[in-house]
Amino acid sequence: MLLRSDITAALAAVVGIALAVQADGNTQVKDPATTAVTQREVSFAEEVLPILEKYCVECHSEESAELGLKLDTYEGVMGGSDYGTVVEAGDVGSLLIEMIASGDMPDGGDPMPAEELDVIKAWVTEGAQKN
Ligand code: HEC
């Protein structure tokens, strides 16, 4: 015969496992905004640059640099604009991210899809490395 206390114990075990799984999942999430891309390191050259090329270099490159901001090279991105830095390593609130998140950039264009902005956020959070 199954006692009430046995059922309670079994339930507690199940809940315990569920909580353990959840806790384990959480340890891999550095920032809720970047959940999609936290399992591995984001590459500037292979992932971030192609996104900037798609949405930004038309107005921010060596040839045409609005506000002196060039987004076609790593040095350009980290060099910032005439007003100063636009990417602070580790700071997901960096101006470049804010401008995209608010829809201000790309100027006059369609907003960048969240998945692509998440890639940039993850790269900045991971230290904005030249990788
Ligand atoms: C059609 C042209 C155009 C495109 C495309 C464009 N920008 Fe801009 N950007 C501008 C202009 C013009 C300014 C300056 C005026 C302003 O802030 O609106 C600017 C300003 C900025 C600034 C502010 C710099 C500072 O120090 O104040 C950032 C950051 C920026 N752009 C990032 C981006 C990013 C990232 C993209 C791509 C997602 C992008 N821009 C796409 C034209 C553009």
Key terms:
47% helix, binds heme C, mainly alpha, 0% strand, 5 helices, 131 residues, single chain
Which structural class should the secondary elements be placed in?
A: mainly alpha
Instruction: Determine the strand fraction and express it as a percent band.
Output: under 5%
On the 0-100 scale, what is the average pLDDT?
A: 83
Helix content: 40-55%
The number of helical segments is 5
Helices and strands, in N-to-C order?
HHHHH
Give the total of domains: 2
Q: Determine Rg (CA atoms, Å).
A: 21 Å
Report on the biggest sheet. none
Q: Number of DSSP strands?
A: 0
How would you describe what is shown here?
- This protein has 131 residues and is mainly alpha-helical.
- The protein has two domains: 4-30; 34-125, no CATH class.
- The protein has five helices and no strands.
- It has helices at residues 4-27, 44-55, 74-79, 95-101, 114-125.
- Helix 2 (44-55) crosses helix 5 (114-125).
- The chain is globular and about 75 Å long.
- The model is unreliable at 14-30 (pLDDT under 50).
Give me a quick take on this structure.
This protein has 131 residues and is mainly alpha-helical.
Topology:
Elements: H1 4-27, H2 44-55, H3 74-79, H4 95-101, H5 114-125
